[in-house]
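Progress against Task 2.4 (sequence-to-structure conversion) is shown through the following example record, which the project officer requested during the mid-term review.
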Amino acid sequence: MFIKRDDSNNIIALSHLLEEGMVAATTQDVEDMQIFLRQFENDAQIKFQQSDLAMARVLEDVVNLLVDQGTIRFTDLPEMAQKKLLLRREMRGQHLGVDLIDDNDYLDI
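Structure tokens generated for the chain above:
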């Protein structure tokens, strides 16, 4: 494994191949390598959580559409689902103008 460090001695690249500016990693580099790799896990985790939020909005919109079209009745949904949907509708109504998730956010996924 090869690493490349910046002027502050932080790892900025890892590679299985030796590339310009890289040196062979040693056992002393393991902790820094783990820190470097963890930041990508955190980035992926954040993106996944953002995707979950967008999917929740998509599902909420689908349920509303099905109810509006008469395909299902709101009361056909489990009681917990009804409560959560009503709570979200109420929260969105109370916070008009504060658009935490844009209506079109899930179109970019």
